[in-house]
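Tokens as discussed.
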């Protein structure tokens, strides 16, 4: 499942390759991919708009779509009615602006195709966006859990409204936050989140409503880096260990972003290329292999139903 570093890699690719591109046509081949709107309304609302920004919040991509002045879509109001508006004055909303939110979930892929290329097969796309310059953006998804939303105000879209803070500090890696989280998360807020939870630390790191963007790969890698066992009770983790874990989490995510994500499964970047981060994993999927620090065989077990690998000597 793509996590924060993989989604951030795709975000940077979208900025590089499709920023300022105008959407000419949208074909919804699998209507279940679109949330809340009939596919025809979705297509009409999106066609003719230009991609003017690409943000990320946790594992969600947020594309800003702007309609040129004076070319109002007859269906533009539909998206507005799908989600409640925030109180007036809370946020500045640009007229003609809407947000396309993409959640890749388990196996979703966004792939850019040149005008001369045939659409990818196996699996076939669930949605095809064709740009005015002839290129196409394909949304493929083997397991079909991925979702696309269209909204006037992305902060109020239900799954995003529930997200916890981003683990990376303000301004780094293009991360944007909800206005009420504009201070982001820091070591002290992270310590407070841990103090309030009596369950195991690993599922806490993976809980999107507590902290956004971390999944099974980077939770295990960050815990190894910090020297903390995945089943440790969150509220019992000592202050100095919390400091280590907070630093380890950010270092783990940053190094994976530098390596353009992990491609053990179906993850590919916008041009279909695999990432390199999987070559550097210390523990993820390495049960039975030697610990990179002490060479003791790594232990694999389930923590809250999810497979976890750790070193019984290096992690306490
Ligand atoms: Zn070890």
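Sequence:
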């Amino acid at each position: 499942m793509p996590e924060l570093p993989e989604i951030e890699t795709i975000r940077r690719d979208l900025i590089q390759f499709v920023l300022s591109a105008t959407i000419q046509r949208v074909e919804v081949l699998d209507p279940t991919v679109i949330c809340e709107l009939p596919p025809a309304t979705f297509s009409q609302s999106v066609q003719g708009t230009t991609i003017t920004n690409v943000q990320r919040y946790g594992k969600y991509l947020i594309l800003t779509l702007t309609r040129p002045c004076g070319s109002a879509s007859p269906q533009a109001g539909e998206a507005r009615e799908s989600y409640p508006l925030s109180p007036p004055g809370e946020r500045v909303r640009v007229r003609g602006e809407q947000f396309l939110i993409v959640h890749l979930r388990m196996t979703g892929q966004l792939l850019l195709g040149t005008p001369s290329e045939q659409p990818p097969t196996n699996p076939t796309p669930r949605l095809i966006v064709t740009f005015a310059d002839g290129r196409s953006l394909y949304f493929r998804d083997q397991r079909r859990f991925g979702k696309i939303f269209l909204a006037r105000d992305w902060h109020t879209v239900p799954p995003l409204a529930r997200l916890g803070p981003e683990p990376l500090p303000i301004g780094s890696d293009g991360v944007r936050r909800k206005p009420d989280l504009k201070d982001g998360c820091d070591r002290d807020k992270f310590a407070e989140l841990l103090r309030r939870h009596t369950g195991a630390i690993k599922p806490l790191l993976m809980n999107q409503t507590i902290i956004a963007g971390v999944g099974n790969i980077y939770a295990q890698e960050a815990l190894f880096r910090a020297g903390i066992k995945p089943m440790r009770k969150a509220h019992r983790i000592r202050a100095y260990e919390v400091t280590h874990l907070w630093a380890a989490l950010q270092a783990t995510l940053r190094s994976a972003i530098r390596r353009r994500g992990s491609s053990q499964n179906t993850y590919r970047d916008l041009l279909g290329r695999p990432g390199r981060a999987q070559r550097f994993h210390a523990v993820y999927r390495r049960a039975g292999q030697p610990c990179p620090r002490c060479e003791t065989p790594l232990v694999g077990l389930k923590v809250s139903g999810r497979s976890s690998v750790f070193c019984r000597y290096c992690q306490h």
